[in-house]
Amino acid sequence: MKSNYRVAYDKGWQDVKQKEPTDIARNMQVHYLPGKQQFIVPFLNENYIVDLARETIVRENDGETPEISAAILVLHYLSFFQTTAEVTGKWVSLKEIPNGGMLFYPAFHKDAICGLIKAFGQQTGAFLACAAILGGQMAKFGDVSAYFPVFPKTPLCVTLWEGDGEIPANATMLFDPSIECFLHIESIIALGGYLAQRLIKLAPQVSS
Fold it and tell me: Over 80: is that where the pLDDT of 208 sits?
């Protein structure tokens, strides 16, 4: 029996192939090479080659295959859009995203936000160092924050408030409200969780 990840991965390829490649490239701001049937997709400071003919996804600089959860996010980014919406430049929490954001927020906070607080609540400098590795740019929220162009049209912003002896550390993750046009709610949550996971995994490297 196929795992849920494998089912989602296979379905992702089907959905991508049902769309016109030039529409994908134009609407989602990725590059398409018609002679090779390949997309070049920027994803967290790396480019990924999405090969339609071979149904493969590899990192451009070293040919490595991403973990399946990341590959699914790439496929969903290329296939979900239904409109020509643009990024608004505004920020909202997951709770403000329609079609389930409020419902799923408690689990997202437990899985993603609490992990960020634990890793960086007393180490905001380490957070900025980790953010830079993933292409994050400093923003002006909280004590420290970083803006991530995770995919070309799905920016995320992570904000931290450093704790002290009296006030506990806190964190939040913000989304451009246009993200609901580019990913369904489960993928929005997965994208935020993936960014948090990548940052947390980098923490020991910059703290050592």
Answer: no
Mean pLDDT across the stretch 23-27? 96
Amino acid at 110: K
Place of tokens 């506990």: 168
Alpha helices in 55-100 (DSSP H): 68-79
Identify the DSSP state of 94. G
pLDDT exceeds cutoff 90 at 112? yes
Long-range CB contact pairs, 31-39, < 8 A, 24+: 39/78
CB atoms within 10 A of CB 34: 9
Which DSSP symbol is given to 100? T
127 Cβ contact list (under 8 Å, min separation 6): 116, 119, 120, 144, 146, 158, 160, 199, 203
Can you tell me the distance from the alpha carbon of 88 to that of 178, in angstroms, rounded to the nearest whole number? Answer: 6
Q: pLDDT digits over 153-195, tens only?
A: 999 999 999 988 788 999 999 999 999 999 999 999 999 999 9
Residue pair 192/200 in contact by the 8 Å Cβ criterion: no
Q: Is there a contact between 157 and 139 (Cβ–Cβ < 8 Å)?
A: yes
Establish how many alpha carbons lie within 13 A of residue 24's alpha carbon, considering only the half-sphere containing its beta carbon. 26
